[in-house]
Amino acid sequence: MQQVWLFLAGALLCNSVPHLASGLQGLPFPTPFARPRGVGNSPPLVNVLWGFANLVIGLLIVARHANTLEIGLNAAAGLAGALAIGIFLALHFGKVQRDRLLD
């Protein structure tokens, strides 16, 4: 069960990156709060807040569930979560960006 929590932590930590990066650059980026969800852009401030929330929750999960004696397996679970959400987001938002170019 610990690896499931760390997988989730990895996904949240990875998801924080594009939102924080976009928000800190003053650029809009899709969030779950946009219309349509995950496709429409949210303003930079919403992205910073959403990215920070993902970062904090991910770090809290790691702090609660990481065991330094088993860090190899735990790190692998976290990295797998980061990779899984990273692949999904890259494919999803790549399609969103391509569709926008066609409009």
* Rg, alpha carbons: 15 Å
Helix count from the secondary structure assignment: 3
Number of domains: 1
Main sheet attributes: strand count, strand direction, barrel closure? 2 strands, antiparallel
Q: Strand pairing plus helix content: what structural class?
A: mainly alpha
What is the N-to-C succession of helices and strands? HEEHH
* Global geometry: elongated
Residue windows where pLDDT falls under 50 for at least 5 positions: none
Approximately how much beta-strand content do the residues carry?
Answer: under 5%
Major sheet: order of its strands?
A: 1-2
Distance between the termini: 45 Å
Mean pLDDT across the residues is: 87
Transmembrane segments: 47-63, 75-94
Keywords: Membrane, Transmembrane, Transmembrane helix
Helix-strand layout with pairing:
Elements: H1 2-24, E1 29-30, E2 41-42, H2 44-65, H3 71-102
Could you give a short description of this structure?
The protein is mostly helical.
